[in-house]
From TrEMBL:
Glucosyltransferase 3-like C-terminal domain location: 2-67
Pfam families: Gtf3_C
InterPro entries (alphabetical): Gtf3_C (IPR058592)
Name of this chain's protein: Glucosyltransferase 3-like C-terminal domain-containing protein
Length: 71
């Protein structure tokens, strides 16, 4: 996943290690050129794990639990 470094989701992308952030579009090629196969494999592994969480409702359940705790 490639996101603008100032986007709201940028911290999430970094924390989950599912891609990289750039300041400007012209930075993308530089980052891609320096990306290793290991980097790509790590991103793929992490995004697959995140996909499972989304499919299984992890984030929805977490939000509901948090809301219930506030009641």
């Amino acid at each position: 996943m490639i996101v603008w470094s100032q986007a709201a989701i940028a911290d999430f992308v970094k924390e989950q290690d599912i891609g990289f952030c750039v300041d400007k579009l012209s930075d993308i090629n530089t980052v891609l050129d320096s990306m290793t196969e290991e980097d790509y494999a790590r991103y793929l592994k992490n995004i697959t794990a995140l996909q499972e969480k989304v499919i299984n409702g992890y984030f929805t359940k977490k939000a509901i639990r948090k809301a219930m705790d506030l009641m």
